[in-house]
Amino acid sequence: MAMRLEIVTPERRTFSDVVELVVLPGVEGEMGILEHHAPLVTTLAPGELRYTKGGEEHELAVGEGIVEITGSSVAVLTDMALNEAEIDEAAVSAALERAEKALLDKIGDEEVATVQASIQKSMAQLHLKRKRRGI
To answer: For residue 135, is pLDDT > 60?
Structure first.
């Protein structure tokens, strides 16, 4: 059983290949997708997207986006998709600290939503990066 997984960000096509399984973070929780899944369009939440290819599991930290599922493919359009090697832990930690500090300052509602989205994406990256080390 196999289906095509396409992951696209504004900068580039991050991934395009045939996989056996996709597990993605949806706004309602994690969702597992196999070939012949019912057609669906849903919202992607910041977190960890996993896919299985050749019996081996791979992971990406993803941001917000949208997912279109058909019986033979999964198309992910997201603002961020990074593998562990692409994540600069020190830079992400610094960005997280700045975002948390900004929440303590007096900022408007629009800015709060932007800062919270930044925090979620930073947390997804740190979780993936630190997971392998057991931290």
So the answer is: no
The helix/strand/coil state of 83 is coil
User: Contact 74/40 with Cβ under 8 angstroms?
Assistant: no
Distance, CA of 65 to CA of 61 (rounded, Å): 12
Structure tokens belonging to residue 82:
């990074």
DSSP for residue 39: P
- How far, rounded to the nearest angstrom, does the alpha carbon of residue 122 sit from its chain's CA centroid? 11
Q: What is the 3-state secondary structure (H, E, C) of 104-125?
A: HCCCCHHHHHHHHHHHHHHHHH
In angstroms, rounded to a whole number, what is the distance separating the alpha carbons of residues 77 and 14? 10
Fold of 3-84: ATP Synthase; domain 1 (2.60.15)
On whether the CB atoms of residues 15 and 75 are closer than 8 A, the answer is no
Amino acid 132 reads: R
State the number of CA atoms in the 13 A half-sphere of 82 facing the CB.
23
- Note the pLDDT tens digit of each residue in 52-76: 999 999 999 999 999 999 989 999 9
pTM for the whole thing? 0.79
